[in-house]
Amino acid sequence: MTGRRAQIAQLKAGDASAFDVVYERYRPRLFSFLARLSGERALTEDLVQETFMKLAQHAPRLADTTRIGAWLFTVARNLFISHKRWALLDVARVSEVRLWTQLAEPQATPLAVAAASETEQLIEHAIASL
Fold first, then answer.
1. Which tens digit of pLDDT belongs to each residue from 1-58?
2. Whole-angstrom Cα distance, residue 49 to residue 105?
3. Domain range annotation of the chain
4. Taking CA 46 as the corner, what is the angle to CA 31 and CA 83, rounded to the nearest 5 degrees?
5. Which of 79, 47, 57 has its CA nearest to residue 11?
6. Is 20:34 a contact under the CB 8 Å cutoff?
7. CA 91 – CA 111 distance, rounded (Å)
8. What CATH number labels 3-128?
């Protein structure tokens, strides 16, 4: 059995030491890869952690021929893309809420408009920081 296949077998069996070896080997490269994509340290750390959580969840179903590095980088990239899609959807929802708020209050006072604008900016900032 090759080293790669033995490692896959150990991961499938739930061997924590095999997981540790994979983590130590790939974490720095995954971190660099995701940091280049996201440009945000906190997001990068979250995505690296989520990538390894996916490995732990899916290890029993890995094919014996799986290339762990390729699998991890594919999962990491997909998680980043998914995060960006959700972020775009959240911005679209904020815009929709803004439109409905404006339509619901056609006679809004300048003070109410300013307060709504400030609230909108706070919501957008909170979503962007996720």
1. 578 888 888 988 888 999 999 999 999 999 999 999 999 999 999 999 999 999 999 9
2. 44
3. 3-128
4. 100
5. 57
6. no
7. 24
8. 1.10.1740.10
